[in-house]
Amino acid sequence: MTISLTHKFQSAKADGADNSIVQPSDWNDNHELTLAASRLLGRASGTSGAVEEVALGSGLSFSGATLNADALAQTAGDLALAASKTTPVDADNVFLLDSAAANNPKKLSWSNIKATIKTYFDTLYATKTELGTKQNALGYTPVQQGTGVGQSTNTVKIGWSSAARLKVTVDNSDQGYVTFDGHVPRIVAGVGVGGIGGFGFFKNNSGSTVNHGTAVAGSAITYSATGATGGANPEGTWVACGTAPNGQVTVFQRTA
Prior knowledge:
The protein has helices spanning 24-28, 71-81, 110-122, 128-131, 184-191; strands at residues 39-42, 52-55, 60-63, 66-69, 93-98, 104-109, 156-160, 166-170, 173-177, 199-204, 215-217, 221-223, 237-240, 249-254. It is of the alpha+beta class. Among the domains are: 39-71, no CATH class; 91-123, no CATH class; 156-190, no CATH class; 192-254, no CATH class. The protein is rod-shaped.
């Protein structure tokens, strides 16, 4: 509707011949209001009085003869004036611009925000269920079992025995004690005379020459001295460490 501004009193007289003066029709005619561009009629002053030009505020614009309010600016203004809330609940909503829909304003629920964040972080971190299957931190650097050159996947178990020595089991098979430098003298002494691994000076009574590396039964040799005198026969199997014709002596090692 076009704004019409006329005098409250309308003259019923006809116009006269003198056009240089205000005629009754001029008095009765609509008055023309002139404004600057993009202005409204109103009164911004805090008291009553004459009509004033009022500038358009943020978020307002003209489209032809229509005054439009920018939804985004209006929403931003509403948010600025809204009260704060410390702890959101699932039914709460937040404001966003939808980049997939020409940046139109949209609302997003707090429950959907949480679900989206969870989905994202699940790709970066272990879930609670997965963490429940993990071993706690050891607090030290472990020794890796297997995977070495020529090694199988058998389970190797190392522990301190009741004999105060380190002992090894592979799967369920006892592998005995681990030998360290300090154990060697005691182990050698424990072999004793005639024990497996021990050495002796023996006379060859086999009837033929025995070369180094030849294994003979204890019944074919006798404890001896350098003079090739014979004594008792040892038990087990012995391997010559030297060459001894029949009736001569050399060093032998028991192997069984």
